[in-house]
Amino acid sequence: MFIKMLPVTALLTLIGSVALAQIPASQLQQDNAAIRTIDKDIRGDEGDLKKNSWDAAHDQRDISRDRADRNADRSRENRDLAAGDTQGAAYWNQQREDQNANIAKDKKDLADSRKDSRTDRARIAKDVRVRHHDIEKRNRAARKA
Fold first, then answer.
1. C-alpha 112: how far from its chain's center?
2. Distances from the Cα of 79 to the Cαs of 65, 72, 76, 97, 99, in angstroms?
Protein backbone atom coordinates (compact mmCIF):
# COMPACT_ATOMS: atom_id res chain seq x y z
CA MET A 1 0.00 0.00 0.00
CA PHE A 2 2.84 2.39 0.87
CA ILE A 3 4.48 1.81 -2.52
CA LYS A 4 1.31 2.80 -4.37
CA MET A 5 0.78 5.88 -2.20
CA LEU A 6 4.25 7.31 -2.83
CA PRO A 7 3.70 8.13 -6.53
CA VAL A 8 0.24 9.55 -5.79
CA THR A 9 1.69 11.72 -3.02
CA ALA A 10 4.48 12.93 -5.29
CA LEU A 11 1.98 13.75 -8.02
CA LEU A 12 -0.25 15.69 -5.63
CA THR A 13 2.77 17.60 -4.32
CA LEU A 14 3.79 18.52 -7.86
CA ILE A 15 0.29 19.65 -8.78
CA GLY A 16 0.05 21.72 -5.60
CA SER A 17 3.39 23.41 -6.18
CA VAL A 18 2.50 24.25 -9.77
CA ALA A 19 -0.88 25.60 -8.70
CA LEU A 20 0.75 27.85 -6.11
CA ALA A 21 3.45 29.05 -8.47
CA GLN A 22 2.52 32.27 -10.19
CA ILE A 23 4.53 33.98 -12.86
CA PRO A 24 3.70 37.53 -13.87
CA ALA A 25 0.90 37.72 -16.42
CA SER A 26 2.90 39.93 -18.76
CA GLN A 27 5.80 37.48 -18.78
CA LEU A 28 3.42 34.60 -19.40
CA GLN A 29 1.81 36.46 -22.31
CA GLN A 30 5.22 37.22 -23.82
CA ASP A 31 6.31 33.61 -23.50
CA ASN A 32 3.08 32.32 -24.98
CA ALA A 33 3.30 34.84 -27.84
CA ALA A 34 6.83 33.67 -28.64
CA ILE A 35 5.68 30.04 -28.61
CA ARG A 36 2.71 30.85 -30.87
CA THR A 37 5.05 32.65 -33.30
CA ILE A 38 7.31 29.62 -33.45
CA ASP A 39 4.28 27.37 -33.98
CA LYS A 40 3.23 29.58 -36.89
CA ASP A 41 6.75 29.34 -38.36
CA ILE A 42 6.66 25.55 -38.05
CA ARG A 43 3.31 25.35 -39.86
CA GLY A 44 4.66 27.58 -42.64
CA ASP A 45 7.79 25.46 -42.95
CA GLU A 46 5.67 22.30 -43.12
CA GLY A 47 3.70 23.87 -45.98
CA ASP A 48 6.94 24.70 -47.78
CA LEU A 49 8.15 21.14 -47.23
CA LYS A 50 4.96 19.72 -48.70
CA LYS A 51 5.27 21.98 -51.77
CA ASN A 52 8.95 21.12 -52.27
CA SER A 53 8.21 17.41 -51.92
CA TRP A 54 5.48 17.74 -54.55
CA ASP A 55 7.92 19.62 -56.82
CA ALA A 56 10.53 16.89 -56.39
CA ALA A 57 8.03 14.18 -57.29
CA HIS A 58 6.89 16.19 -60.32
CA ASP A 59 10.51 16.66 -61.44
CA GLN A 60 11.11 12.91 -61.11
CA ARG A 61 8.05 12.20 -63.27
CA ASP A 62 9.34 14.69 -65.86
CA ILE A 63 12.70 12.93 -65.95
CA SER A 64 11.03 9.54 -66.42
CA ARG A 65 8.82 10.87 -69.20
CA ASP A 66 11.76 12.54 -70.97
CA ARG A 67 13.84 9.37 -70.74
CA ALA A 68 11.01 7.36 -72.29
CA ASP A 69 10.74 9.92 -75.10
CA ARG A 70 14.51 9.85 -75.62
CA ASN A 71 14.53 6.07 -75.83
CA ALA A 72 11.65 6.13 -78.33
CA ASP A 73 13.55 8.69 -80.41
CA ARG A 74 16.63 6.44 -80.33
CA SER A 75 14.64 3.47 -81.61
CA ARG A 76 13.09 5.64 -84.37
CA GLU A 77 16.57 6.86 -85.32
CA ASN A 78 17.86 3.28 -85.48
CA ARG A 79 14.81 2.25 -87.54
CA ASP A 80 15.43 5.09 -90.02
CA LEU A 81 19.15 4.26 -90.25
CA ALA A 82 18.31 0.62 -90.94
CA ALA A 83 15.93 1.74 -93.68
CA GLY A 84 18.58 4.07 -95.16
CA ASP A 85 16.66 7.29 -94.31
CA THR A 86 19.49 9.57 -93.12
CA GLN A 87 17.33 12.71 -92.99
CA GLY A 88 14.82 10.98 -90.72
CA ALA A 89 17.64 9.63 -88.58
CA ALA A 90 19.16 13.11 -88.28
CA TYR A 91 15.76 14.48 -87.22
CA TRP A 92 15.34 11.85 -84.51
CA ASN A 93 18.94 12.39 -83.38
CA GLN A 94 18.15 16.11 -82.91
CA GLN A 95 14.99 15.22 -80.99
CA ARG A 96 17.02 12.92 -78.75
CA GLU A 97 19.52 15.70 -78.05
CA ASP A 98 16.63 17.98 -77.09
CA GLN A 99 15.32 15.29 -74.72
CA ASN A 100 18.80 14.96 -73.18
CA ALA A 101 18.80 18.73 -72.55
CA ASN A 102 15.36 18.45 -70.94
CA ILE A 103 16.57 15.58 -68.75
CA ALA A 104 19.58 17.62 -67.61
CA LYS A 105 17.34 20.59 -66.76
CA ASP A 106 14.88 18.37 -64.89
CA LYS A 107 17.73 16.75 -62.94
CA LYS A 108 18.88 20.19 -61.84
CA ASP A 109 15.34 21.10 -60.83
CA LEU A 110 15.07 17.83 -58.91
CA ALA A 111 18.33 18.52 -57.07
CA ASP A 112 17.11 22.02 -56.18
CA SER A 113 13.77 20.68 -54.92
CA ARG A 114 15.49 18.05 -52.80
CA LYS A 115 17.86 20.68 -51.39
CA ASP A 116 14.88 22.89 -50.53
CA SER A 117 13.20 19.93 -48.81
CA ARG A 118 16.31 19.24 -46.73
CA THR A 119 16.49 22.91 -45.79
CA ASP A 120 12.82 22.91 -44.77
CA ARG A 121 13.26 19.78 -42.64
CA ALA A 122 16.27 21.35 -40.92
CA ARG A 123 14.35 24.57 -40.30
CA ILE A 124 11.40 22.64 -38.84
CA ALA A 125 13.72 20.67 -36.54
CA LYS A 126 15.40 23.89 -35.38
CA ASP A 127 12.05 25.58 -34.71
CA VAL A 128 10.81 22.56 -32.77
CA ARG A 129 13.96 22.66 -30.61
CA VAL A 130 13.53 26.38 -29.98
CA ARG A 131 9.85 25.92 -29.14
CA HIS A 132 10.70 23.10 -26.74
CA HIS A 133 13.36 25.28 -25.11
CA ASP A 134 10.92 28.19 -24.73
CA ILE A 135 8.26 25.95 -23.22
CA GLU A 136 10.80 24.51 -20.77
CA LYS A 137 11.95 28.02 -19.86
CA ARG A 138 8.36 29.13 -19.25
CA ASN A 139 7.58 26.04 -17.16
CA ARG A 140 10.83 26.41 -15.19
CA ALA A 141 9.92 30.00 -14.38
CA ALA A 142 6.47 28.88 -13.29
CA ARG A 143 7.98 26.29 -10.95
CA LYS A 144 10.35 28.83 -9.41
CA ALA A 145 7.74 31.49 -8.82
1. 13
2. 21, 10, 5, 17, 18
Q: Give the domain extent around 90.
A: 2-144
Domain of residue 55, CATH code: 1.10.287
Tens digits of residue pLDDT in 47-87:
999 999 999 999 999 999 999 999 999 999 999 999 999 99
User: Which three-class secondary structure state does DSSP give residue 32?
Assistant: helix
DSSP for 59-120, written as a single string: HHHHHHHHHHHHHHHHHHHHHHHHHT-HHHHHHHHHHHHHHHHHHHHHHHHHHHHHHHHHHH
Cβ count within 10 A of residue 57: 12
pLDDT at 7: 52
Into how many domains does the chain fold?
A: 1
Question: Which pLDDT does position 1 carry in this prediction?
Answer: 42
